[in-house]
Amino acid sequence: AGKGLIFAGLSRLFGYGNVIPLAMGFGLSQVGEFSFVLARVGIASNSFSMDFYALVLTTTIITMFLTPFAASLTAPLYALRNRYLRPFQLQTVNLPQQGFHRHIVIAGGGSVGKYVADVLQRIGKEFVIIESDYRKFEKIRSLGFPLIYGDAEQPIILEAAQVDRAELLLITTPVALVCECIVSQIQTINPELHIVASAETPEQIQTLHDQGVYQIVQPEFEAGLEFARQTLLHLDIPASQIQAFTDEVREDLYKPLYASDAEYRTLAQLQNASRLFDLTWMTLDAGSRIAGRTIQEAGIRNATGATVAGVVRGGVLHANPDPGFAFAENDIVGVIGRKEQLSAFRELAQASPALPGPPDREGDDAPPPATEGKEPKSPSRA
What's the mean per-residue pLDDT of the chain? Predict the structure, then answer.
């Protein structure tokens, strides 16, 4: 009892409120295993009898066994306290006064949660982050994001995030027990809410799918697959073979999702295929062969096999330019193609004697400088 009160008091002293002190008091009240060491010292120094030593061991084992049951009392006692006394004031930051509607709830304010929140803020989509780590809470507070301090496993925290009016819930933590507990609570509060969750193992993917989770991400698998893709690209494996391989591996892992949702499978294949296009950006230096010429005049497609996907000029992106688009010096050109095609484009676009062009274009018939015209094929000139 004393140990539970000490930990509850310490949590309040360090600024933790709401249900946290109660949870810490029940969760850490058991006699710790270090008591075994102290009891052995007590026996060795004749500080107490063997009967007292047996009492210490018995108490330690019993309190360890009862800890999960004691911790499970946190939620009902917290609810009972709020029913008869004034509820704890939830610690919230930047929540709109009018509340939320069709917003996105992000359970977990770590790196993934912050990246998602940043994107949502840029596009003007309403969202709220739930974070139980006070250090992360303070970091997110400084970013100005809507934020609730608390454990997303607790119904009162989910209700504060208004999950009953939300459009989507993102569970960014890969911890299986935490993730499954949050999903279980959502099934009670808003069973129609779509959930995107993170899974630690392939087995957890099946478990979350059975619980009705909308989409599942396995971070380590995605990172490993991206490493494999980069390796195969470096080895000049054809893009079609890489796509077939990654599709097969991905389908094996996400089989439960593919089997139940054809749209998910199609979207995954499109995302995977988009990674196979090797887009490279190159700057046209002064004197570039293709500067002042259009895409059609330079014959880029026929000469190199590469495709011009975009051109950045003066900070403005010209996406998918038409054949009549004329290049200029200092343009940043985005080119799609295989390794050898990109090398061919780089050679074509380098600064060297101008390509012969149509006679009706002014300046195209002008002879190249005398110093370069004598040895147009010299590697050193290239």
Answer: 78
